[in-house]
Write a structure and sequence with these properties.
- The structure is a single chain.
- The chain has 433 residues and is of the alpha/beta class.
- The protein has 18 helices and 14 strands.
- It has helices at 44-51, 54-57, 70-78, 90-96, 123-133, 141-157, 173-184, 203-209, 221-227, 237-240, 253-258, 260-278, 283-291, 300-307, 338-350, 358-366, 370-377, 411-416, and strands at residues 31-37, 60-66, 84-88, 107-111, 114-115, 117-122, 164-167, 194-197, 214-218, 231-236, 247-251, 310-312, 319-321, 326-327.
- It is found in: Endomembrane system.
- Residues 1-23 are annotated as: Disordered.
- Its main location: membrane.
Length: 433
């Protein structure tokens, strides 16, 4: 039986039909929305909505502003320099829990899709893993993590410095996925390695200079590192949890409440752009747009291959193809499911960033707003209401790396079941400001 959370923050508000595209926005006037984003392929839906006319069709102009860090994006949304923002999926959850250096209430009514993350280690560290674990070129993500554990054990025995690994933000899918992968291999992320914050565009250079020994980041920066010959891709998001939400559209609750028509039109535009981005015959045009210096400023051929899920794992000719590496719309990829927010909450508790409470569960679930999504697109565009709070990782093709399932009704048992987790507060990561 599924657990439901009552209240308007989580429950549906209805809406049975798709709104027709307007010539302009009645009541609220024509809108120009200032939107912050980080140069990553998972900003595709937002960029495509602007570049290919989907926003304009809904009477909206998107003023896209490229930023340098997630902390900047968070602050500029809070201080009303942005109306909406490309955000990490845990950021609204953290904000509603009052976590971080500048917590300001933030919600998301729309996910920008799934996929896009990977874990890359330096070629130096990977060579040590091969020696320590007799690692094959076709090793699985779990085998790679176990080989890293053996390499770290040897480093400890010799009194060598522990590996320094980069994530993009303390409250990020990258932080939790990296920790999940490390722990599955028997590595304590708070004692066996050093985790630091590195902005996505700087990860490849940081790896090349030896400032870090690995990172978890979104595309295209993993492939940039592997093709430079400085990194080896050892795991992808799909290996850890395929359905994990990646980036979302964040907005302030009071802004959403005072601009309901604008929000609905925005969701209609993003939905159309997401459908367009999922079609392979549009990937050439999308790659060209993303490669522009205004957006990602990365080689168009790398972006095109990333969209197709075609990876060069290193510069030695080792390749991997991941079908559906990016899902911009398919499988309700845009639906902000509260049970996904609750899984994120479970990882925050697991790694000592917050405590478990009924108040915390309600706040975490309230960050994801399927009611606004349904109001904009209609019930036919959304999953069944019973799926809003569901058991995650329970079906083939959507398993967690460790084989466990997440039942929001048994969150305490789920956290207690992990062999590797933080003590009080030890899971905190210095926040970038």
């Amino acid at each position: 039986m599924m657990t439901k959370f009552d209240g308007t923050a989580v429950g549906p508000r209805g809406g049975d039909s798709r709104l027709a595209a307007p010539a302009g926005l009645t009541g609220e006037g024509s809108r120009t929305l200032r939107a912050g984003f980080i140069p990553l392929v998972d900003a595709s839906v937002l960029i495509a909505a602007s570049e290919f006319g989907f926003a304009q069709k809904e009477g909206i102009v998107l003023d896209l502003v490229k930023d340098v860090s997630w902390a900047n994006v968070r602050d500029r949304l809070a201080f009303r320099q942005f109306d909406i923002a490309h955000m990490l999926s845990p950021m609204p959850v953290a904000s509603m829990l009052g976590l971080g250096s500048n917590p300001s209430p933030t919600i998301t009514p729309f996910s920008l899709g799934r996929g896009g993350n990977a874990i890359t280690l330096s070629t130096r560290l990977y060579a040590r893993m091969q020696q320590a674990g007799a690692l094959s070129e076709t090793a699985s993500a779990l085998e790679n993590a176990q080989a890293l554990a053996k390499a770290i054990s040897g480093m400890k025995a010799r009194g060598e410095p522990l590996p320094t690994l980069g994530v993009t933000y303390p409250f990020s899918s990258h932080n939790y996925e990296f920790r999940f992968w490390l722990a599955a291999g028997g590595i304590d992320p708070d004692r066996d390695v050093k985790l630091v914050v590195v902005p996505p565009p700087l990860t490849s250079d940081a790896l090349a200079t030896g400032a870090i020994d690995g990172f978890c980041v979104g595309a295209p920066w993993n492939m940039v590192a592997s093709e430079r010959g400085v990194g080896r891709i050892v795991a992808a998001k799909q290996d850890i949890w395929p359905s994990a939400p990646e980036k979302v559209i964040g907005m302030r609750p009071e802004w959403a409440e005072t601009h309901p028509e604008t929000v609905s039109r925005l969701i209609v535009a993003l939905d159309a752009a997401a459908r367009w981005c999922d079609r392979p015959d549009n990937h050439d045009a999308l790659s060209e747009a993303l490669a522009d210096s205004r957006y990602i400023a990365a080689p168009v051929d790398i972006i095109r291959r990333v969209l197709a899920g075609e990876f060069n794992l290193d510069d030695q000719g080792n390749r991997r193809v991941i079908d559906g590496y990016f899902k911009f719309h398919d499988g309700f990829a845009n639906y902000p499911r509260p049970s996904q927010a609750l899984w994120i909450y479970s990882q925050m508790i697991r790694w000592g960033q917050t405590d478990l409470s009924s108040t915390g569960m309600t706040a975490a679930a309230a960050a994801y707003r399927p009611d606004i999504y349904r109001l904009a697109l209609g019930a036919d565009a959304a999953p069944l209401l019973d799926d809003d709070i569901r058991v995650e990782g329970a079906v083939d093709g959507d398993r967690f790396m460790d084989g466990q399932v997440f039942d929001p009704a048994r969150i305490a048992d789920y956290i207690a079941g992990f062999a590797v987790k933080s003590g009080m507060g030890s899971g905190s990561l210095a926040e970038e400001n």
